[in-house]
Each structure stands twice: as C-alpha cells, then as structure tokens.
C-alpha cells in the first residue's frame, strides 16, 4: 500500500519504518523540518533500539521518505495514519490542537483528490473525539462527506517505548474501530505481515479500549507497588510474592472478575481487603489504591439504590439474594445491603433466591438468615413468579441461570435493572430493561 504517516514522534517513526519494512511505500510527515531531514538522511528522529538501522535500510531502498508537505503525502498515498501528540493540559483534559490541525491539513489536501482516502487515527483520543473533532475537521476543510468522500478508522497503538519495534511486530491485538467495512479493509491490510489477531469494533469502542488498557496498566503498577511497600514493612520479599501471584492465571491474571456489574461481596473479599488495609495502617503505610477499593465498591451499591429510587416505582422484586449464583452465603452480600437500604426507605420488597430459600429450610446459613436478617427472611418468596407478580421493578442481583427465563416473562409495565447482565436477548424482555453499567 501507499501510506502516509503524520507525526514522526515515537509512534509515527516506529510505524513508518515498520510499515516500510513490511513492503508498503511510506511517506512520513512532520511539521518539524529537523525530523523530516533526519529521516531522509536515514537517521531516526527518536532514540529507539533498532530504529536507526530500519530507517537507514528503508530510506536507502526507497520505500520510506519524509516531507513537510501534507499535499505531497496525501496525493501520493491511499491511507493516512495520524500519529501526532495528544498531550495533557494542566487540568488533565487532552490538548487536541495538533490533532485538529493535522485533520484540517489532510482535509485541505483531500479537497483536490478524487480517489477515496482513509484517515486512520493512531493517536490516543478519548471516546467521541473521532466523531466530534476528527470527522468534522476533515469534512469542513475537504468539502467532502465522511463515508462517501473519505473514510476514517481508529487503530490505537499498544507499543511501549524501549521495546517499540518488537511490540509493533508482536502486538496483543490489531484493533480496528470503524463504521464502514470500506475503511476497515485497508487498515487491516496495513498489518498483513503482523502476526496478531485483528479485532474489529466501532470507532467509540476502539477509543475506549485504549483508555481502559492504559489505565489498567497504570493500576497494575500502583497495585504492585503498594503490595511491595507492605511486603517490605512486613519483611517479605515482594518479588517472590508477585512472581508467585502472577503464576495464577485463573483468577489473578485472567479475564475473571473483569466483567462490569455489581459490587463484590461474600465472606472473603470485603473482609480481606479490610484486614490488609488495617495491617498497613498498623505499620504506618498509606495504600491509596488498595485503600479506595471498599469505597468504590460501596459507591456501586449506592448506584444501584439510586437507580431504583429514581425509577419512581415502589414495589421492588429482587431476583438473587446471595452475592453470587450457586451459593447460600449471605454474609456481606451487596444485595442484602441494597435490600436493607430500600426497606429503610419504605419500599416493599419481594425476594427470590433458590439457594437461600433452601438454606432457610435446611442450610448452613439458616441461623444467619433467621437471626441476622429475620426482617428480610420474611420477604423471601418460594417462586420467581411470585416476585414477578408482585413487583413494579425487578432487580436482577446475580447470574442464576433461571433469571433469563424470568426476564422473558416480565410485563411491559414493569422495569428491570440488571446488575449482572443476564444472557438474554433484550428483544425478548417485555419490561423496560436497563443494566447497571451498560
Ligand atoms: N509514545 C508512546 O509510547 C505511545 C504509545 C501509544 C500511543 N501513543 C499515543 O500516540 C500519539 C503520539 O505520541 P508520540 O509519543 O509519538 O508523540 P510525539 O510528541 O513524540 O510526536 C508527535 C509528532 O507529531 C508532530 N506533529 C504535530 N503536529 C503535526 C502536524 N500538523 N503534521 C505533522 N506532524 C505533526 C510533532 O512535530 C511530533 O514530531 C499520542 O496520542 C500518544 O498518546 C504514544
């Protein structure tokens, strides 16, 4: 392909040189003439292991050159990759001035170009930016319409400085956000020689994935450091702890616990987070990340309470009472906290949980149910349908498989708040449906 790469910084230089090495013909563009000259002389404009050699070889064989001229670059390529900076302002917002300017320049160059051209946003931008800034700037200056006159895709970069060439060649995924297949195809074709699964999604989802990823990486660093700081105080080798911790790929480093939904609860997580925080306090250690976990969890419970109260409906049915399906353990169940809050506000409740009903009769938690929460125990119904019949609003609290079927039996005058994301086709739910965080 003929590709132009706008911005010859860390991302743009690595991308331009790597695409050229893969057999594409690449034109790098930068407003900084020194970077352009450097690349044309076969030298890397940035320090990155192996990049000098790659740029030298590909400028020598004619597959890579640089220019300050946007029109030269756009005219001689079918796809433009935007890799300009999107730095932080003092208040944390993104400075989009470079992005907007480069889009205006590309748009002006597109005005005189007949062939369909795809603009690929590789810079990191917040969800909505492509639709609110990139596309309007391109339309305004090109006089063309997105979708027919030109295309746009979002292709976030996952490389790390220092190992950027290796990361370019071995990315976890190649992510392509687009609204038209005609824009996805050329973007994917760029990566024909890169061995990674291509994941297609919408523009806004692709933008968000980049932020979820980087924030997760930042969270991992701070979590590991806080664990490390506590280990040091307790005279435990933090590296041994985290090395062994990382060997658990079932719960620790896995997709488990990574589904947005309701608060955690049960007899272990709240108790153990609390105890670890207490131990840190005893050794005068601050752990702001770990220290904020229970507060965040509490807010999610409050969020569910607010959703019910804002519905204006007073008869509430709870499907699921224990903190997860398949257990009768009610200790620190966030649904119990939700139920108590609603009861305190004068709501009428009907509750169904197969395992809790069973436990009420024979289970190990019978004493807990009868002694600790007798006021809630009396609200337990024996069947799902009793709850459905009595309720104006139904809250799904856990993922018990029978709840999908229950939602199909709701009425159009009812509302459903799903805290779990039951596997059910929304079209099959007669009630008004909303999820807690989707
Ligand atoms: N650095 C990384 O490791 C990394 C990794 C993934 C994503 N990102 C994201 O990629 C984007 C680029 O980051 P970077 O570190 O490569 O930035 P950078 O600051 O190193 O490079 C940006 C380049 O864009 C050039 N530029 C600015 N306006 C231009 C214009 N109108 N036309 C042509 N060139 C122009 C600048 O002169 C500069 O050389 C950012 O959004 C960043 O968040 C960076």
Task: Please name the defining characteristics of this protein.
Rossmann fold, single chain, 19 helices, alpha/beta, 438 residues, eight-stranded mixed beta sheet, binds nicotinamide-adenine-dinucleotide, 13% strand
Q: Report the CATH topology name of the largest domain.
A: Rossmann fold
Classification by helices and strands? alpha/beta
Q: Determine the mean pLDDT.
A: 96
- In which order are the strands of the major sheet placed? 3-2-1-4-5-6-7-8
How much beta, percentage-wise? 5-15%
Report the C-alpha radius of gyration, rounded: 28 Å
Query: How many helical stretches?
Result: 19
- Poorly predicted ranges: none
Q: Helicity, in percent? A: 40-55%
Q: How many strands in all?
A: 13
Bound molecules: nicotinamide-adenine-dinucleotide
End-to-end CA span? 39 Å
The CATH level-2 architecture of the largest domain is identified as 3-Layer(aba) Sandwich
Count of all domains: 2
């Amino acid at each position: 392909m003929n590709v132009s790469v706008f911005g010859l910084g860390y991302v743009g230089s690595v991308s331009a040189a790597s695409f050229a090495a893969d057999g594409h013909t690449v034109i790098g563009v930068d407003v900084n003439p020194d970077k352009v000259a450097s690349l044309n002389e076969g030298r890397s404009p940035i320090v990155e292991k192996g990049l000098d050699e790659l740029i030298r070889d590909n400028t020598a064989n004619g597959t890579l050159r640089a220019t300050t001229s946007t029109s030269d670059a756009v005219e001689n390529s079918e796809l433009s990759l935007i890799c300009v900076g999107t730095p932080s302002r003092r208040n944390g917002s993104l400075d989009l001035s470079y992005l907007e300017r480069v889009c205006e320049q590309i748009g002006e160059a597109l005005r005189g170009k007949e062939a369909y051209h795809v603009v690929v946003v590789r810079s990191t931008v917040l969800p909505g930016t492509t639709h609110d800034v990139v596309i309007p700037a391109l339309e305004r200056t090109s006089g063309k319409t997105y979708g027919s006159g030109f295309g746009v895709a979002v292709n976030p970069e996952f490389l790390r400085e220092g190992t950027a060439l290796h990361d370019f060649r071995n990315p976890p995924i190649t992510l392509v956000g687009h609204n038209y297949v005609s824009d996805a195809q050329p973007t994917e074709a760029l990566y024909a020689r890169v061995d990674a699964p291509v994941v297609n999604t919408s523009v806004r989802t692709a933008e968000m994935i980049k932020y979820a990823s980087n924030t997760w990486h930042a969270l991992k660093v701070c979590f590991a450091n806080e664990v490390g700081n506590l280990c040091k105080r307790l005279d435990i080798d933090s590296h041994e702890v985290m090395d062994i911790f990382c060997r658990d790929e079932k719960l620790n480093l896995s997709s488990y616990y990574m589904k947005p939904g309701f608060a955690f609860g049960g007899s272990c997580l709240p108790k153990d987070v609390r105890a670890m925080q207490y131990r840190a306090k005893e050794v005068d250690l601050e752990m702001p990340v770990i220290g904020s976990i229970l507060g965040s969890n509490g807010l999610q419970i409050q969020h569910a309470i607010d959703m019910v109260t804002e519905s204006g409906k007073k008869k509430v049915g709870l499907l699921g009472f224990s903190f997860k399906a398949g257990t009768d353990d009610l200790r620190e169940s966030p649904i119990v906290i939700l139920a108590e809050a609603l009861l305190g506000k004068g709501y009428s409740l009907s509750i169904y949980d197969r395992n809790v009903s069973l436990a009420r009769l024979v289970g190990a938690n019978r004493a807990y149910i009868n002694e600790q929460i007798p006021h809630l125990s009396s609200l337990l119904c024996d069947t799902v349908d009793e709850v459905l019949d009595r309720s104006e609003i139904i809250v799904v609290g856990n993922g018990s498989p029978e709840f999908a079927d229950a939602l199909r039996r709701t009425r159009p005058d009812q509302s459903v708040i799903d805290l779990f994301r039951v596997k059910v086709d929304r079209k099959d739910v007669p009630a008004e449906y909303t999820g807690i965080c989707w």
